[in-house]
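Ticket #393: bound-state structure for zinc ion.
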Amino acid sequence: MAADLVCPYCYETFTARDIGFRCSGRISPAGRRCPLARDPVLAERTGRRGEVGPAFRADGRKPAAACPDCEGDTTYRICPVCHSTLPVQFGMVGHRLIAMVGAKASGKTVYMTVLLHELMNRVGAGLGTALMASDDLTIRRFGGDYEEQLYRHGRLFHGTRTAAANDGRVEPLVFRFSRSRGRLNRSRPRHSVLSFFDTAGEDFNSRENVELNTRYLANADGVILILDPLQMPGARPLARPGTVLPGSEGVDEPVNVLSRVTNMLMARQQGSSGLIRTPLAVVFAKLDAFWDTLDPGSPLRAHPPAGDRFDTADSLDVHEEVRRLLKEWEGVRIDQDLATHYRRYRYFGVSALGAGPTPDALVAPTGIQPYRVTDPLLWLLSEFGAVPRRGRG
Ligand SMILES: Nc1nc2c(ncn2[C@@H]2O[C@H](COP(=O)(O)OP(=O)(O)OP(=O)(O)O)[C@@H](O)[C@H]2O)c(=O)[nH]1
Ligand SMILES: [Mg+2]
Ligand SMILES: [Zn+2]
Ligand SMILES: [Zn+2]
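RESOLUTION: The complex was predicted; output attached.
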């Protein structure tokens, strides 16, 4: 059988049969209890050193198995490669890995934090969707680090730690996305597992991380590529006066970042047409710095129509508007590269903060006012059939 599952924690592939189990460590009906101990595989692969029940092999297609030592039943299923506990119903519900990549300081961490915050709070309810952290570590890291820093303290992030500085490990945030089953979409999948891996921009430039990133990208079902117009020589001079500009030292222009991503995706998978099949959301961040330069009638000055569907017409308007902006920003090569290599791609324009931060890296006094942040994710989910669309295209 083909290896059709991808671990949301390590991005290695395996089959359902290979899924392992972990003893619950509770006293079993037979009166025995397995001792908890550090799992060397888990520690090596993920850095998690806590004491856990012993791992064992059994038929991973089943939801539960009996521990060979204590005979107690367990429903903890684990990845055969990294031994992370898999989300409930993993392999039984749709699981979608969304990879997010972009150059250094392009705004990935801020965007991811705001996107997830919006989906968990404001937007989710309107869309009839819910987003929940899938494991304790995600709850602690997302709530405790990311959300706390940006929303409670109003402080922007330092550059994300590189995978190399983290012993080559990645620590994705894993969420369960669910949609309440509406009358019209009875057959659509209700749950998806979303895994976000917040890369450091430098991971894209260093050789030792290319292998890791290739696996991550190649096994993703959809890719969100964050591009920063402030890093485009043709757009930089157009930014609103006073905008905090990213340093240009060691920064790669968006067109080069795109080439790197394209090379990584091509290394692994191609359709018979030679085009990359993974849907690619090309997201231009920090749009607030360019609002002054846009036409008052531009779709990038309006909010997307409200409703519980992905609005195709609005999305295509935005797509064309970004394509037009690329001419102004001297970014036409980006458009050519996408058309040459990708079967499915779509442009987006977002502002996670809604206003430029202060020079001392604090959220503007007007607060966080996200603009169009959920559009790219909803497009990807609608491509997978996990969110319904209004209109065709
Ligand atoms: N004007 C504006 N600036 C933003 C926005 N989002 C991020 N920025 C700026 O971009 C900087 C970098 O954002 P991060 O999200 O930390 O960037 P990153 O891509 O995670 O960077 P690395 O982790 O170093 O790769 C922030 O400190 C802000 O100055 C936005 O919506 N609008
Ligand atoms: Mg970051
Ligand atoms: Zn046991
Ligand atoms: Zn794994």
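RESOLUTION NOTES: The chain has a mean pLDDT of 88.
TICKET STATUS: resolved
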